[in-house]
Known about the structure:
The chain contains eight helices and five strands. It is α+β, with helices and mostly antiparallel strands. Strands 4-3-2-1-5 form a five-stranded antiparallel sheet. The protein is globular and about 55 Å long. Mean pLDDT is 78; it is low at 16-77.
Amino acid sequence: YVLMMKLYVALMLIIFPVLNAFQISPPTSTEKSMTLGFEDEMSRRKLLFRALTANFLLLPQSPQKVAAKDTINNTASNKRIGGLSGKIRNIGNIMDELQRDLMEERWDLVELYPMQLRSYVPVLTKYTDCAFPSDLPTDKELRVALRYEVGRFFASLERLKQATSRRALNEVYIAYSDMSLHFDRYMRVGGVYTYYDDVVSLEPYYKGIPDDALVFANPTKDPPEVWDLVLFIRGPDKGRTGILIGIYPDVKNNFVVKLDRYKGMREIRVVPNKWVGKRLGVEDPDEAFMIPREG
């Protein structure tokens, strides 16, 4: 038995590098690589493992035992990653509460968020390592990308903390926008979003419909300001709505917009200021302002 196990290890070291040379290249889209490529990669690795076991080790196992082991391993892994995904998505709820408090200039409350958000460092780290644990090039690249977004998120959080101590509202808005953007990217790359939207652009749906059919203020004469409710009037998100959470003055006044909730999630967009108009008429406030404060 010991001799056979040694043979197994030797074969793994020799054969896997050869098989990896023929691995399928990941899709060009980062999001599709996460939602689809990861599953394909994991399935392919299981098939390779079974082939080695069956053909080289000569240690047959009944289909029932193999299926039972796979079910137990997959269930445990999915529960572990699924639990972490839920905790990560909760950061989005905290970001909504932070948005409410900073836009209402409740500085005493804003000062409490850095410590609360930093408590999620172990969660983000563990998810990165558990969701993409292998030494395959795709997993390595994804771990690097996710760690980068985590680093940028907490660097932005530190800037928010410093700007809050100075009561520098515009700097706080920019720091919050950066936090939202990097968290959104982590969610996309990490496959934490609860859905995959394969619609490339909504503009074709508005073909032939005049712009004045959409109700919004002239972006040149009456541009939106931070915390205004906005409507996308150009670009792939045309017709979608959200709230302006920041303006990047050093990048041609690009707007940072948090979209209204869709399937439980709120995505972030950074777009040219001419793509967004302020909504007119009677509107309900952004849902972040409807979140009750505890106590």
